[in-house]
Every structure is written in structure tokens, then in C-alpha cells.
Fold this protein.
Amino acid sequence: MAAGTQENNWLRQVTGYWEMAASFVLHGTLSEELFMELAFSGEMFVIFAKVRPFLKDLRTQLKSPTIMANLEKLITRSKAGRHTLKGFEERLAARKKMMKEAAVARAR
């Protein structure tokens, strides 16, 4: 939400890219089977997994109910997409826990 910051620019750039790419798949321009291969779209899953817990609030605060809608639709419409997302969410949670434990250990 910090407009004008480098972080805000990066978030808008990366989500805009993946939104556009997902729209190509949803409209039949790109093969969904190819696109959903992790070698091609792994970053998309990481980004969505990081933002997903805050997506409802983000949409409300920005008054943009469709922000990241293409990503959400593409990822959640198939069992394989939901399974892949769950794996990324679990890995991110494990990494967050590990980083927190490391911070606590350094503080001692």
C-alpha cells in the first residue's frame, strides 16, 4: 500500500505480469498444460501464495475486487493447481517458521 516505494513498484510489476500471463491461458492463447509446469510458472505460485492471506483486504483497501483475479481463477480451478499452491504455502510457512526460530536464537 506504500505508493511510490520500490516495494510497491515491484509488487505491481510482478503481479501485473502474472495477471496478464494468466489471462492468456484463461482466454485460450496459451496452453494451460504447458503454462502450469513449474519450470514456467513457479514464480506465479510463490507470489500468489505470499499474497493470498491478504488478498481480500488488499482488494478492499484498493477498491479493486478483481486484483489478481486471473491468477486466483487459474490456480484454483484445477485440482493440480490447488495441490501445487498448497505445497508452496506449506514451504513458505516452514521457511517463515525457520526464520523466526533463527531470529529468536540470535537474540539470545
Notes: The radius of gyration is 16 Å. Residues 6-107 form one domain. DSSP finds six helices and no strands in the chain.
